[in-house]
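Deliverable D5.2: sample structural annotation.
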Amino acid sequence: MRALTPKGAATRQRIVEGAALLIREHGPANVGLDDIRAATTTSKSQLFHYFPDGKSDMLLAVAAHEAERVLDDQQPYLSDLTSWDQWEAWRDRVIARYAAQRRKCPLSALTAQLGLANPAVGDIITGMYARWQGAIAAGVRAVRPDADAERVAAQIIGAIAGGATMLVATDDIRYLEIGLTEAIDNLKSSIRD
């Protein structure tokens, strides 16, 4: 993509954010370019200026946006899991974010909805999970150098992803709360074993 002016970058970002919101609410199959155009007050020519291949370009941009949002929503704690207090603060942050988002969760939109809509999104999803696992594994190594950091990080991400899926299906945050809390408690308790 060619460089955009600051105004052009802001317009493109506004379109992506509006499209992401619609897709979280309705799913990609139920959102067309006219819906996005109406929700973002943009013209058809603007959409195709920023997304020349239409909806497929838009879905890739939305997927990249949602992947960044999943990770950004966990900051500043995800980058600094160097103490048990930081782990608890991160856990609380994750639960609070998902409780606020409820069924409009970017992780679920990204993996369950966008991933099905466009196979090219797979690289974005894989990259997001790799970065996420790397950050959690670094945190595991900081508090438990003896643990299999990659394995523990995979378990923790599984707890979050499973909890997010259950949240979307049931609108009940307890699955996420219990899964993530248990995963961190297991990491802590194995110190005494």
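Annotation notes: Residues 23 and 31 are 6 Å apart (CA to CA). The chain has two domains: 6-63, 64-189.
The annotation will be released with the project's public dataset once the embargo ends.
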